[in-house]
Amino acid sequence: MEPLVIYAILSLIIVSLVLLHIRQRTKLKKLERLLDHNTSRLEQLQIDFGRFAPHEVIERITGSDDEYAPTMRSVTVLFADIKGFTKMCDRMDPTTVVSILNGYFQSMSRAITRHHGDITEMMGDGLLALFGAIDNNPWQVQDAVQGALAMREELKAYNQKLKSKSLPELSIGMGIHQGEVLAGIMGNYKLSKFGVVGDTINVASRVEGLCRFHQVDLLITEEVKRQLDHRFQLKKMPAQEVKGKDEPIVTYLVEGSSSL
Amino acid sequence: MSDLLKELDWAEPMLPVVPNTEWEATVKKQMGTIPDVMTRVSGSPWLRELMLKGMRVQAKYIPKHLEEMGTLICSQENACRFCYGVARAQMKLFGYSDKLINSIEQDMLMAELDEKDRTFIRFCRNLARSKPRPSKADKEKLLSLGFSSLQVTEMAFQIARECFVNRVVTFISSPPMGAFEKLPNSFIGRLFRPIIARKLRSLGYAGDGSFEVEDGPFLPVTKALSEIPTAIIFKEGLQGAFESEVLSKELKILMFGVVARTLNCDYCSTACHNLAEDYGFDREAYNDALATLSLPGLSAQEQQLLHWTRETVHYQTGPIQSRVKELSTQVSNDKLLEAIGVASLANSVVRLAVLME
C-alpha cells in the first residue's frame, strides 16, 4: 500500500477519534448541565415541599431510604381553634378572611416552633401542633404549655394589628393532652402525609372544645398537669362530660408561667 | 467556589477577637497561620488548646482518603461554612478533583464506592446527624465488613472531633478563611500544590501514642479511646472544662445531662448522674433541674445557657447563630465562650458513647 494512503487512513482514524472525543465531551457536558439543573430543581422542590410538611419529616424521607413507617410514641398534642370563625366568614369578604387567617397562622407558627413544636395540620381555622412526634423531646409537655402561652401573647400582638386596620379581633381556644399515638407517614401510593392517630388526639380535640363551655382560652388535662412543675399557675375546672368518654374529663386552666 | 459554599448561611462573629501575642505565636508555629477562630477562643485556656489540636488531628488507623472524606461530610452535615470551606480547599490541595468533591457533596459518590466505604460514609453521616445515633448494629456492620475495632473507634472519634470543631466555629460564627479557600485555584496554589500538601500534612497533630486514663469525667468513654493517640485531646478537654471556674459545675453537668437526654443516651444519662453525685450535686435536685431545665442556684445568665444547650444538639445554622447573637446580648463574653465550648464538647462526648453501647 502506498505510504500516502496509509497516512490518509491514519489521519482519518485520528480525526475520527478526535471528533468522537469532542462529541463525547459535549455529550458529557450536556449531561452534567442536565444533572445540575435537575439537582437545583430537586432542591427547590424540597424547599417548596417544606411548606406542606415539617422540615424534619422531609429531611428524613428525602435523605434516606427510610419510609417513616408509623410507630407508637409518646406525644403532646395541642389543638387550637378560632372562636366564632364561621360567623365571621359569613360577614366578611373571602379575601380578607384568608388574609386574616394567614397572619394568624404565621403568628401561631412562630410561637410553636420557638418552643420545639411542629404544626402538622391546618384545618380551616384550626391547627394541630405536635411536640415530641418527630424528634425525641423529653421536655415536650413543658414545651407545649409554654408554646400555648406564647400563642396567647402572639395573639394579643396580632389583635392589635387587626384593630389598627379596623378588622375584628380573634379569640381562640386551645386544648393540650399527652399520651401515646401512632405517628408516621400514612396513606397510599397516590396520597400520603405525615400524621398521627389515636385516642390522645381525640381527647386533645375535646379539651379544646371545652374552652367554649368554660369560657377560657387554654385548657390542659390531668396527664399534662402531672408533668408540670410549680412555675405554672393552674386553676382546676369542674369535670365535664365529653363525647366518646365514659368518665367526665378534669381540666385545668393555665393562667400563666413564671418562666415566660 | 462551590455552590454549596455560597448557599450556607453565615452570620457576623458573635465574640470579639481577644489579642494574646504569646498564644498567637504558638498557633502560628503549630498551624503555619492564625485562623480567625483561634483569636476568638484565646480567652479560655482549655478550649483554645482543644481547638488547636482538634483542628489538626491526623488519623492513625483509618485510610487517609476515608479520613478526609469523613471530615468533609461531617462539616457538610453540620453546615459549618468555615470548616467546609477549609476541608474543601484542603482536599483540593491534597489532589482530589473538583468532580470527586462535588460528587461527595451531592451524595452521588455512593454509587461508585464499594460496600465497605459506603457503609463508612453512612456511619459518618449518621453519627454527625444523630437522628437517631447509630446503633450497636451499625457498629457491628462496620466490623463485619473488615474494619478493625480500632478503626471503628477512631472513626467515631474523628466524627465527634469534627462535630466539636464545627460547633465551636458555627456558634462563634468565625469568618471563613477566604485566602486559604482561594489557594487551590490560584497560580501559586497550582504550581506548588504538592509542596503545600506536604506542608499541610506535616502540620497535623498525631499525638504521642496510647495514653493512660485513671480518673476524670466520663471515664469509660475516655478509656475506650485510650488506644487512639490523638484522642487524648478529649480527656484533656473534659478535665479542663470541669476544672474551669467560669461556669458553675452544676451548670456544666446539667449541660451534659441535657445533651444526653436529648440524644436519648441512657449510658451518658447514667454517667451524668454519677458525675453529679461525684461533685456533691444532690440527686433529687439534679433530676428536678433536668426535668424543668431550671435550678434555683443558677444565675439568670446560666439559666439562659442551660436552655440554649438543647438547641445545640440538632440545629440549622441561621437560627442557631441568631440565637447565639441574642444570648451574646444577655450573657458576658467569657461565660458565652465557655458555654460554647462545654455544649460542643457535650455533643461530641455523647455521640462518642456509641462506642459503649
What is the topology?
The complex is a heterodimer of chains A (260) and B (357).
Chain A: H1 3-49, H2 55-62, E1 71-82, H3 85-91, H4 94-114, E2 118-123, E3 126-131, H5 140-164, E4 172-187, E5 192-197, H6 199-214, E6 218-221, H7 222-226, E7 232-236, E8 251-257
Parallel strand pairs in A: 4-6
Antiparallel strand pairs in A: 1-3, 1-4, 2-3, 4-5, 6-8, 7-8
Chain B: H1 3-7, H2 21-31, H3 36-40, H4 45-54, H5 64-77, H6 81-93, H7 98-105, H8 115-129, H9 136-144, H10 149-172, H11 178-182, H12 187-191, H13 193-202, H14 219-224, H15 232-243, H16 249-262, H17 266-278, H18 283-292, H19 300-311, H20 317-328, H21 333-352
What would the keywords be for this entry?
A: alpha+beta; 7 helices; B: 357 residues; mainly alpha; AhpD-like; 2 domains; globular
- Total tally of structural domains of chain B: 2
Q: How would a crystallographer describe the biggest sheet of chain B?
A: none
Tell me the number of helical segments of chain A per DSSP (H or I, 4 or more residues long). Answer: 7
Q: Estimate the mean pLDDT confidence of chain B.
A: 91
Poorly predicted regions of chain A are none
The assigned structural class of chain B equals mainly alpha
CATH architecture of the largest domain in chain B: Up-down Bundle
Helix fraction bin of chain B: 55-70%
Which H/E pattern describes the elements of chain A? HHEHHEEHEEHEHEE
**CATH superfamily name of the largest domain in chain B?**
AhpD-like
- Count of individual helical segments of chain B: 21
**Radius of gyration of chain A in whole Å, from Cα?**
28 Å
Calculate the terminal CA-CA distance of chain B, rounded to whole Å.
41 Å
